[in-house]
Structures are given as structure tokens and as C-alpha cells.
Amino acid sequence: MENSLVPPVVPGPPAAAWRIVSLIPSATEIVDLLGLSACLVGRSHECDYPISIQNRPICTEPKFNPEGNSTEIHDRVTELLQTAMSVYRLKLEVLETLQPTHILTQAQCEVCAVSLAEVEAAMTELTGLQPQILSLQPNVLSDVWQDIEQVAQAFGSQADRAIGPLKDRVEQCQTLAQTDTATLPTVACIEWIDPLMAAGNWLPELVTLAGGRSLFGTLGHHSPWLDWKALVEADPDYIILMPCGFGLERTRDEAQILRQKPQWHDLKAVVHNRVYITDGNHYFNRPGPRLVDSLEILTEILHPGQCAFGYRGTGWDVLT
Fold first, then answer.
1. β-bridge pairing 102-106 and 132-136
2. Rounded CA Rg of the chain
3. Are 239 and 228 in contact (CB under 8 A)?
4. From CA 28, how far away is CA 50, in angstroms rounded?
5. How confident is the model at residue 112 (pLDDT cuts 50, 70, 90)?
């Protein structure tokens, strides 16, 4: 949703001298939130929001073929990580041309984006280039606020004016969820389909804020692999699919794998038509400002009679 972020905060001088390269989508969205998009001179191949930054030069590319189903992608990534620190490549020649003053990257996951170690190693190969490297490592929602503050501080912007409206929206979702006094529904958030992986990090917190009880994944910890038998035994009230890097329609296609699993059609969530697909790529997988959008999506799903933020059909849908 193009207008889902709060209006950008205009930074002070000397913005004209800043040349920012963002190597992760969440950081790009933070840059935009803070009113710094005019200073963004380069991006990763996955940075596609907002639309206005899509004309920036691309500074990364995957070392593997990202097409295919989840099984094929998992196998390629697993094989690649046995010999490489990252599954992405920095385009050094593009960075040399762009001459960035700041590079935004991450130290959270080698599969998600170019790693901090790889960026630091690349800087030694570039002639006379000594940009400031800002590394983000969000694991919970409060870390996202800290990331926004870190970026804002680096560029003399005002983080409070950006974070305040986001926190207000979080509080609104909490209030809506609390008006429903029924027993907390159990929720299984699935971050990868084959092999099966539950969603960790910030997702258990978002589920709690939305008025649910997350069955798998530990708050602030990496997403765990999930045994199919464990899912069947837990028999969640809701199953929400959010495969990393997959949009809504690709998730819809990938979900067909689950229909072939033993006892799938006996699961409570399936029987009661409470299996949902989401655009994990643009929402749940990106630990930036749009995690608040992700919370609103969860609140819509879990409390359809209490709220309607308008994400159905674009951010989520019922798996039919």
C-alpha cells in the first residue's frame, strides 16, 4: 500500500552532501520515512518500495537462481552457504561509481541480504572509498524504533516525529484486539513451506499485539524449522503463510504443497477456513516501518468484525 507509511520527516542540512546506498529493503523504507529519499543514490535488487526509488542503480544481485518452488530455492541456498558467507554479491563497480558517503546494511541474516562482514570486506577493495557503514539488526519491534533512531541520528533528522505515528497505530491495534474478550486464538505463522519453518524474531510479538497466541517461534530469536507432526499435533486455530521473499500470488501457488500433506484437511484451521496467505515479502519479512502494516494485517485477520484496514486482496487473503 503506497500510502501506508507516515508522511516523511524533512531532515536538515547538509543533506545535499549525503550519498546513501541501502542494501536492505527495510533500511530503504526507513530512509524514505525520514524524508531522505533524495539522498538515496543506490539500492539492493530487493529494494522496491516506495515506487519512487526504483530508478536508483542496483548494487547487489543473488548468487543463486531465485526462481522455482521453496524446495528448490532452499536446496540452492543451503548448498551455496557451505562455501560462501552470503548468498548475494555486491556490485563493486557500481559502488565505485556511486561514491556513497553512507551504506546501510544488516547483521541479522546471511540469507536475507548482503551481510555486514561482506560489506566491510568489499570496502577494502574500493579505491579511496570510506563510507560510514550503518548496520541494522532488528529482532523485535523496539529494535525497529532503535534502527529508525540510528539512521535519523546519522543524518540529523528527527526520529520522534517518524516513530510517534507508528506507535499510535500499534496502540490502536492493541485496543482493537482487547475489545475482543474471547479466548486467545492459537496462531501458526509459517515463514517457509518446504521444508517447513515457523516465523520467529518479531512475529510472536506482532501476533500477541494483534490478540493471538503464537504457537511456534521464540520472540527475538531466529525462525526455527518446524516438523510437520508438531504442526498437526498443535492443531492451530489459524495458519498464516508468509514465505520469506514471496508475494501474495506466489504464496498462493506455493501453498498447494500443503494440500498434499498428511492430515492437512483435518486441521482445525483448514476445516474452519482459517488458513491465510500474505505478502510476506513486502510486510512480515521486512523489519522496518511496515511491520506496523503487518500488525494491522494480523489484526484484520484475527478480528474481522472489529476492524478493516483495507489490506485484504493486496496484503492478505483467505486460502481457498
1. parallel
2. 20
3. no
4. 8
5. low
| Minimum mean pLDDT range among 96-110, 117-131, 160-174, 219-233 | 117-131
C-alpha grid cell, residue 101: 558517503
Provide the total of helices (H) and of strands (E) in the chain, helices listed first. 12, 12
As a whole number, the mean pLDDT across the chain is 89
Q: What are the cell numbers at 145?
A: 524504533
Cα 154 to the chain's mean position, in Å? 23
Q: Residue for cell digits 494491522?
A: 296
Sequential DSSP letters for 32-81: HHTT-GGGEEEE-TT---SGGGTTSPB-EEESS---S-HHHHHHHHHHHH
Closest Cα partner for 85 from 53, 103, 55, 63? 63
Is there a contact between 27 and 53 (Cβ–Cβ < 8 Å)? no
Q: How far apart are CA 320 and CA 318, in angstroms?
A: 6
DSSP secondary structure string, 129-160?
--PEEEEE---SHHHHHHHHHHHHHHTT--HH
